[in-house]
Structures are given as C-alpha cells and as structure tokens.
Amino acid sequence: MVRLFPVAVDAGGQPVTDLTADDFKIVDQNKPESIFFFHGPVHAAAAKSDVLEFSNRTSAAAPHATVILFDLMNQNQSDRIEMWKTLDKSLPQLESGDSLYFYLLNMEGELVPIHPIGPKSASDAHWPHDVVGAFDQAMKAASKGRPVQMGQEDQAKKTFHQLEVLAQQLAVFPGRRDIIWIANGMQNAYNPKLPCNGDWVDCALYVPHLAVTLAQADVAVDPLANGRDVATGTTGISGMDTRTNMGQAKSIQGDTSGNQGAQGVDPALDLTQMARLTGGHAFFQKDLRTVVKQLTTDAASAYDISYVPPASEWDSKFHVVKLTCNRAGVKVESRERFYALPDARTPVERNKIGLMEGFQSPSDFTGIGLRVKISTLGTQPGVHLQMFIDPADLMMLQQGGKYVGALYCLISDRNGAAPAGEPAVLDLKPELTADQYKSALKDGLPLEQDHPTSASVVRVIVLDQNTNEVGSVTFPIK
Fold this sequence. Notes:
There is one protein chain. The chain has about 475 residues and is of the alpha+beta class. It has 3 domains: about 1-40 and about 300-340, no CATH class; about 65-300, Rossmann fold (3-Layer(aba) Sandwich), CATH 3.40.50; about 345-475, Immunoglobulin-like. Helices cover about 25% and strands about 30% of the residues. The protein has 11 helices and 27 strands. Strand 17 (about 370-375) and strand 18 (about 380-390) form a beta hairpin. It is globular.
C-alpha cells in the first residue's frame, strides 16, 4: 500500500476533520486510484470505566513524537549563531517537552544528542526549561569549521543518513512522527548515469533510499529556515532546480571551511520539496514555538488514507501523487511523492515485522483502538481477558453479506517495559453480520481469552493482517 497522512484545512487555515473517503480523490502518475483504507481523525478517546479496564486511547490528545534537528552543517556561520541565540530563547518557552527530542547535526555530519530519543526522555515535559546550559556547551564543542575534505556529495550523504537514523528511531513510537529540520538549504549530489530532465528528486543520489526509509517509518521532515537569504518556496515539483537549470553555485558567506555550496537560485525550493517528498510542511521565518504548535495541531487533525497500486506500477521510480478534496474551499496538504520500490516480502513476513514492532516497542500503539477488561482465573495464577477492538480501525471486507477481517492477537508478559518470555499468538478471522458489525462499531469487536501467567504486567497487541496496522495496550494484573 501507499499510505498518506493528509491534513485538510479551510480557507482560514483551520482543520477540517469531518471529511469521508468519498470527499477525497487520488491520482498516481495521472491515473486515478481507489482508496483502500480510510481513517479519519480521532475526535474522542475511550475512557476507563473502572480500575480493571484499560484502553490505549485514554487521552484526547493524538500521539505525536517530534525530533528537533539543529543542522549546523547546512547553514552558514552567521545563521548558525543567530539561530543558536533564537533557540536559547524559544526552547524554554515551549509549552511541553513531552515526546519531543533535540539533536545537533555537527560540522562533521554527526548527531549530537541534547535530549535524545528514549523512553525516559519521552515523558520529561520540563526538559526545554532546563536545556540551555547543555545546549550551549554542545554548541561550543560543535562550532568548528567543516572538514576541508568534505565535498558536496559527502555533505548530502551525511545529511540524508542522519535523517534516516532519526526516522528509524522514531518509528517505534505511536501516532504521527516529525523531524523539524532547522537548516537554510541543502546539498544535492547528482547521478551522472541518470537523465535529469525533470526535477532533482529523479536524478539525485541517495534520495530514493531516503524516501523509502522515511515512508516505511511514517516520518515527515519539516524544514525550518530562518536565514536572511531564504525566501518562501512555493514553486511546484516541476519548477525545482535541475541539473539543466541549476542556478550558479553560491558559496556560503562567512564560511571558509571548504564548503562547495551548490544550492540553486532559491534554497527554499529544495526545502519545500523535501517537505512535499516526505509529507511534512516547510516553515520560513517562523519561531520554533509556532512550528511545534502547528505540527501538534496537524497530528490531531490528520487523516490516514491508503491505496494499492497494481503490481506493474511498482517500477523502482518516483511517482507523483495528487490527493485532492471534492469539498469546495478545502485544501489538502499531503505527501506528493513516493518511490515505488517493489516489496518481495510475503504478507506473513510483513505481518511478523508489524507484530515485532508492537512487541518490542517501549510504548503502546494506538493505530487500532483496543480496550481490555481483566478478571481473575480463580485459584490459577493469571487473568481472564475481555478484549474489545474498534472495527472502524480495521479493514473489514464485505463477502457474502458478511464483514470479514483477518487479525493477529499477541499476548505478551512483560518485565517492566521489556518483553518476558514467548508470547501467545492468536490467528483470528472474524465474520460479522451487518447487525453484528453495527453493534461492534458501538461497543467494540469482542474477544475473550484466558491467560495463565505469573507475570505482573501484560501487553495485548492486535495487528490487522490486511493493513499491517497495530494497536496495543499494556496493563498491570497485580
């Protein structure tokens, strides 16, 4: 599947969250596509009814993990210093540091963690208020000249690689995932073996690998550029700098460390297209607080839409995707590219990876709504589980007058946040009549299971075999 996470806004820029699948139209390489899976924004969350009931949707806030990456390598010296001062002021003013992380990309192309990704960091809401000292110390250590031997291709490769590293670490967290990439331009290296009659995405080295990695991790890159010479990039994909219309290479003022500086006439075009390639949003001359707030709003109002191109269309090329809304006055922002890399894995292999992610993740996934009631097994150690799965989050196909699904349910004993022992795995094929499906939409798809165990914590994981979406909930039983 090709999976998109569009945000719809009205003429005033406010989120529109009541659209249906019929309101959207998808065109891939000028060919119309049918929506295979549709999930609207979650407007309300399930709440616990008593102390023995647990849900992975106990908060109205949409799960959202964000990395702030202050890129020193792709900025000139004066812009680096100016942004340093700006961040010193704006970081302590962030409303919360929950699920928010902070790194530098130093002049050697290495990641320097200030508030690194991890379970302990995720729940630290106050770190932005106390981070300035550690940030200033790291900046002083990182403020060296770019290595003389680092050329344009090295710079592009290192930048893309570190974006991928962060994306792969973010992939274990639920909900929307963003990288706020603070840079004032980007380098590109071109493949001389490829024709470059279109835009740079088609002929630049390392971009396909970057696109596939970020798409698999469902991570968007949101460039933030506050440099004095960076305009707002509004040109569409077809108007990007190419090898045939590339502007004269510009050296970066104030930087004498050997930078080759091959940005185009307007570096904002490159940053804008990076956002469009990954499903993010480009910000120019914006305060960090404004950016974080906007991305939080987008996370709460994003749709989840998937379609399935035919096997012949997976041709190891970039595809241009246009997602539009039929409702008048509504604008859709979404990823405009994907790299059609054929997947040789079987459905079972893909499902196994999804289950392992839910099994090993330090936190629960909310892609499928899941509620669990527990009761004792009498004198036997363990619990009886009453599980209720939200069928609106599942791909239930209509066959022979029934709604048919395919699920895996994994029940895992836990030692704190880590798995303990081998999990129990159930292969489920629910079949519901129209009345049963209507009832399940209201109360949840029921499933009961005895789980003998001496553990004190259990995690239930549900995977939809049709979409590879995962939901999980972790709870104490003692």
